[in-house]
Design brief:
single chain; 115 residues; mainly beta; 4-stranded antiparallel sheet
């Protein structure tokens, strides 16, 4: 079993920056895919960024150049650094990992971009 705990969400002004963390109970070295999704109120969950165990990354077009996914293997933690935030980025952000044939989700952390 894998437990994921997100942190770092909050209220930020447009144009500001925010960093999210996802701490995993197991070693992320054994996790094939690590990613971040978001879900705005009343909308479907959307893939924001993902990273394969080999280091390849993917970003949805709307966040390219603004968001960066990274990891710290020693700390079993995945990060999402967000900059130049827009009101459209407001959503609950979820950490996700694929491990041993299963997909695991964190509880989510709220990010609100507003002045």
């Amino acid at each position: 079993q894998v437990q994921l705990v997100e942190s770092g969400g909050g209220l930020v002004q447009p144009g500001g920056s925010l960093g999210l963390s996802c701490a995993a109970s197991g070693s992320i070295l054994s996790m094939e895919v690590m990613g971040w999704y978001r879900q705005a109120s009343g909308k479907s969950r959307e893939l924001v960024a993902k990273m394969g165990s080999g280091g390849s990354t993917y970003y949805v077009d709307s966040v390219k150049g603004r968001f960066t996914i990274s990891r710290d293997n020693a700390k079993n933690t995945v990060y999402l650094q967000m900059s130049s935030l827009k009101p459209e980025d407001t959503a609950v952000y979820f950490c996700n990992v694929y491990w041993s044939g299963r997909s695991y989700w964190g509880q989510g952390t709220q990010v609100t971009v507003s002045s």
